[in-house]
C-alpha cells in the first residue's frame, strides 16, 4: 500500500513543503479505505482466499497455532456469528428491544479475545459479543441488556469483562484508569502474572474527547492498555472520512506510542497483533493502538436501515473478505479439517442458537422493585421511602382499591 | 381557537416528527444562515428521520454530518453562531448531551453576558428525550432540569405536532440559545397542522384543557398523559385543568397561579427524577404565590430518583394515568 | 456536645483548608488504596494547598499530578475505583467540573446500578466552590444543584473545620461516589479540631443554633452567614434556628421539618441561582411535609438567576446577612 | 536536533520493532525540552545572540521586514511587556483581583499578532495581551476582566478578537466553528479578502478533549484555522511531560495536517511561521498547528508561587533567550536603530504605563444592575422581576428602612 504521505500532508517540520499537498476528498477516502493492497501498513497472515502468508515479524506470535487451535478459532467465529444471527432474529420476533449485530467482525473480536490472558482486563463497547464469548460470558447473559431486563447481567469481576458501555468513548478513559491501577499495583513486568487491559471502541469513537484523553493519560503513565479500534468503516451512517483524514492507526503518532493496522477480517493476524500488543503492555511498554480494519456487514442495530446511506456494492465486495470463510478454505486446503468437523461445528451452532432462543423465551421480567435497588451501595433513606410508597401504591391495585 | 382542531387550506395531518421536519425546512428556506448539524442528520436524516431530506435539498454545507463528539458539535456551533450562522444542533439522544455540558454551560449560556451583549449565540440544540420507547440505557432520560438551572439559556419542550411545527421555528428565530426538548415517544402522534395560522408565542405556557376540580401541570410527553387522566377523571365527576408548560426556562407560571387560585389543588407531572427538578421549582413557586389558595400541598408525580431502569420496568417508572389520578385523589383528600 | 468547642488533648486549631488536608492525610495513612489525583495537587499541593505535602510523604503513585483534562481525571478515577483504589479527585475550581459531567453522570453515578451492584465506585470528587473571593469568571460558581439532581451519587458540603476534617474521611470511606463541595471562601476560617472525637454521621444535617422564631437552612459557605444573621436578629428579639444541611443528596430534612413545625417559618439560603435548585427542592418538601405548620411560604434567599457576575458586584449577588434578615422579616410579616 | 524517533517509539507500522524503544523519562524530557539545537525541527531566524540566520523556507515570509518594521516589532514587545509589568504591579497594589502575566511570551504573541490581517479572526486564551495589542485592543480594555468590573470589555466584532476564554480548551472548538463559517461563506481562496482564524492555547490545554475535537473537526472540514500553541513549558505547576511524551507540534501528525515548532522567543520566526500558516489557511490548505516554544518567565498568575515547583536555574537559562533582548542586539549590531530610538520607546512605554495606571485608578465599579443585564438577548420576565425586586430592596436601605 502506498504511503499515506503521498496523498495527505507530509510529515511536519517541512513547513512550506506542505503547500498544495492537500489531498482531494477522493484521495482521502481512497487512503482511508485502502486495505487489501497489502504491504507494511496492514498486517495480514491469512488472505481472503485462505492463503497463509508469511510475516517475519508476527509469525512468531502465532507459532503455537496448529490445526487444533485454528479449528478452535473457526469454531469460535461460527458460534458467535450464529448467536449473533439468533439475537437478530429474536429482535425481529419482538423478543428483544434491539440487537447490535457483530456480523463481519468475528475475526477482529475472536482474534483479540483469544489473545487475552485470564488475568487481563477488558472494557468493551456494546458490540463485543465475540470478545464476551472469549471471556466466558455466555450469549444468554448478553440478552438481558437488549431485552431490557437488566442493563448488564454478567459479573465483570469474575469474567474480567466490564459491562457494555454505550456512551461513545467513556470506557476508554475507564480502561486507562484501570490499567494505571494494574501498573500502580506492580502487575506490569516480566512475571507470568503480569497484566494488561484491552479496550474496544469504534472508528466513530476516535473523534470523542474521552478517547483522546485516554491516549494522553496512557502515554503519560505508560499504562498497560491496548486501544483496540474496530474500524468497521461506519459510525451508523457516517463513513470514516467524517472522522479523520488519516488512517486511524496513525492517530497514535501524535502521542508517541505505536499504532498498527491489522486486517480485521483475519483472525490469525488479529490474534498475532493483539498478542504482541498485550505483551508490550504487560512488560511495561504500553500503550499500543490497534486498528482492526473490518466491516460492519449488517445494520448498525436492528433499528437501522443501512440502505439509506450505503451501496450494496460495498457489502458485496466485503463479503469476499469474509472472516470465517477464509479460515474454512484454509482448513480444507491444508487438510487441517474434514467435512465432519464442519458439520459438528454447524450442529453445535444450531444447538447454541436453540438454547439461546429457549433461554430468551423464558426470561422473566424483573420485579418493579428493581427500579429502586442497587442505586447506592450504602443505601438512601429517601429512595427507600419512595420505594415503600410505590410498593404500597401497587398493593392498592391488588386489593381493587383503584 | 385551538390550532390543533382548526382545519384550513394550509392544514395537513402531520406526525410530530414530520412537523419538526417541516418547521426546520421552513426556517431553512426563510434564512440561509440556518444550518443543521449533528451525527447522522445528513444522508440518513437522523435516527428519528427528523432531518429527513434536508441535506438532499439544502446541501452538505447546510446540513452537516459531523464527527462523533457532542462537545465538538456544540463547540463549533458556538463559533458558527458568533460568525452569524443560526446552527440547529441535534443531540442524537438526551443521554449523549453530557459531553457537551461544558460548552453549553461555559460558552453557550455565558457568551452574551460575558461580552456585555456584544455577542449573540442564536443556536438551537434539539434533544429527543424521555422514555417509554423500550430502549437501552441512556436513550430514555429526562435531563431538562439540569439545563433549566443554568442562567443564560432558554429551555422549551413541545407536546404536540402543532407546537412542534411552530416552536422549532420560533426557537431558531430567537436570539438566545434555546434547548429544544422533543418527546421522542410522541414523535408518531398526529394532528392537523395549519402552516398559515398565527403561532402561539414560544415562551408561554398554555391551558390545554379547562377544569375546576384540580390543576395538572406538565410538559412534553406528559401532557398527553395528563389529558388522558383528565378524560378519565370525568368519570368521577372531576374536571381537571391541564396546563402545558411549553417553556421550562423561563417558566411561565401565571396561568398555573391563576388556575391554582381557582382549584386549590396542583399536581405537577414529569418523567424526570423529582429531586431538585423543574417540578420542585414549580412547587416552590406555587406555594409562595398561592399560599392562601392551596387546599393541599403541591404534589409531584415524577420519575423515581434512580437511574433510568431497564426498559422492562419502565412502565412502572414512568408516571401514568393511574399515578396522576392517585395524586389528584390524594390532593383532593388532603 | 458541639465538636467545635470541645478542646481535648488531640485538639488543634485548624483552618478549614488545613483540616481537609489533615483528613486526607489520615485517610491515606489508614488505607493504602486511597490516592489523590488532579491538576497541580502534587508538588505544588493544589492551588489552595489542600493537598500540601501529600505527594512528598506518600509518593507520586499516590498523589498524581494529572494531565490537564477533567473528564480524564474522573474517567481514569472510575477505572482505578473499579480496580480497587479509592481515588480522591480534585477539580481545581467548580467552574471546571463541566468537562467531567459526562463521566460523572454516565459512569460514576450509574455503574453500581448498571451492574446490579457487582461494581462499586468509591470515589470522591473534591470541588472548591462558591464566590466571595474576588475571582475571575468560572471561579465563584455554585453548581451543586446539578449534581443533587443526579441519582447514584451523593453530594455533601462542609461548613466548618471540624466537619471538614471528618466529612472528607467519611466520604472516602463511603462505598458510593461522593461529590464533596468545599466552600473556598471559608478555607481560612479556624476552629479547634479534636481528632479523637466521635464524628457526627456524614449523611445527616444538624441544628447548629437553636431558636424558635424562624428557621434558617443553609450549607457550605452560607452557614456562617446564617449564624451571623441569627446573632444579629437577637437585637430584634428574634431567635433564629440555624440548620446546617451538610448532606445535599440525599437531603436529610427531618431536622428541618421538626424545626418548621415549631417555628412555622423557613428561609432557605444558598449562593447558587435559585431556579431549579436544592433550595427549590427543600421548599417543595417542606410545603408538603409541613403544610399545616407553615405560617408563611418557604422563602429562598439565593444567588440571582444570572451567570456569576464580575467580582466587583459579587457582594450584591451573594446572599448576605441583610438579605437573610429581610427574608425573615418578610416571612414573619406574611 | 536529533529526530525524536530516536528516543521514543518509531513510526507505526513496524510492529514488534517498537519493543524496547520505550524512552526513559529522562529521554522524554530531553526530547520535549530540546529547542536550541536548531535544525529542521525548530524554526529560528534570529538567535538568542541576535544573529539573523538564513532559512530558505521561511525567509520569504519576512522579506518585507526591514529596519522600520523590525523596530516596530521591538516597540510592540517593549510596550506590551511594560503594560504587562504594570498590570502585575497594579495587582500587587490591590487594584486588580489577579493578573495573568505574559512576561517572556512577547515574541510568540507579537509575531503571531502581526501576521494577522484585519479580516482574520482571533480566539485568545487568557494570556494573550500581546495579541490583543496587535488587534487594537488597548491594555486598558483588558483591565476590566482582572479588576472584576466586567468579564470582558472589548468589542469582539470590531477588533475581530474574541473575549478571553478561561475554561481550558473551549475556545479551540469555538474558533474551529468560526473558521468553518469563514469557509462556508466562501471566504477561503485566493482573493485578497480571504480569511483565516487563529486560536491560542497553552501546552497544558493540549490534553483537553475539546482541543482534540477541534483538531478532528478542522481536519474533516478543512477549516482555515491556525492552532497556535504557546508551549511556555508549564501548566501552572506541571511541566510539559505531564501532558505528552512527544513534542507537542507532532500531535498534528495523527490528524493529517502540518505541525511545526517555532522558536517562540524569536519574533521574526513567529511572524514568518504564522504568516505561512495563515496563508495556508486562507488559501484553503488549513488547518495548521504551530507550537511556539517559549517560556513563562513569571508566575502562572499573581496568585501563584512558582518557587514551589520549579528551579530558578531554569528561569536563568531562559533569560538568556529573552525575546526582546535579541531584537535589540540585532537592531544595534546591524545599525538599524540608534540609542535615540530605544530611548523613545522607553519613554513611550513609561507613558503607556502611567496612562494605564491612571485609567485603572479611575475605573468605576459597575452598578448592581449589571448583575441582571445582558443575560438574555431577548429578555426574561422572571429575571426582570428579580432585578426590580432587588432594586427596590436596595432602595429600602437608602430610605433607612433597614
Ligand atoms: C456520546 C454518544 N453519542 C452518540 C451516541 C449514539 N451512537 C451510538 S453508536 C454510534 C456510532 C458509533 O460508531 P463507531 O464508534 O464506529 O462504533 P460502531 O457502532 O461502528 O461499532 C452513535 C453515534 C452514543 N452512543 N454516544
Ligand atoms: C477546564 C479547566 N481546568 C482547569 C483550569 C485551571 N487552570 C487555569 S490555567 C491552567 C493551566 C493552563 O496551562 P497551559 O494550557 O499550559 O496555559 P498557560 O497558563 O501556561 O498559558 C489551569 C489548570 C481551567 N482554567 N480550565
Ligand atoms: Mg464503526
Ligand atoms: Mg503553559
Automatic annotation (TrEMBL), chains A, D:
Keyword Oxidoreductase (UniProt): yes
Region (Disordered): 1-23
UniProt keyword Transmembrane, yes or no: no
SUPFAM superfamilies referenced in this protein's UniProt entry, alphabetically: Thiamin diphosphate-binding fold (THDP-binding) (SSF52518)
Signal peptide feature range: none
Known cofactor(s): thiamine diphosphate
Species of provenance: Kibdelosporangium persicum
Segments forming domain Dehydrogenase E1 component: 75-351
A Pfam family this chain is assigned to: E1_dh
Keywords: Oxidoreductase, Pyruvate, Thiamine pyrophosphate
UniProt cross-references to NCBIfam families, sorted A to Z: PDH_E1_alph_x
Name listed for the protein in its UniProt record: Pyruvate/2-oxoglutarate dehydrogenase complex, dehydrogenase component alpha subunit
Phylogenetic classification of the source organism: Bacteria, Bacillati, Actinomycetota, Actinomycetes, Pseudonocardiales
Automatic annotation (TrEMBL), chains B, C:
InterPro entries per record: THDP-binding, Transketo_C/PFOR_II, Transketolase-like_Pyr-bd, Transketolase_C
Cofactor: thiamine diphosphate
UniProt KW keywords: Oxidoreductase, Thiamine pyrophosphate
Transmembrane annotation, as ranges: none
Domain (Transketolase-like pyrimidine-binding) ranges: 14-189
Matches recorded under Pfam families: Transket_pyr, Transketolase_C
PANTHER family tied to this protein: PYRUVATE DEHYDROGENASE E1 COMPONENT BETA SUBUNIT, PYRUVATE DEHYDROGENASE E1 COMPONENT SUBUNIT BETA
Name assigned to this protein: Alpha-ketoacid dehydrogenase subunit beta
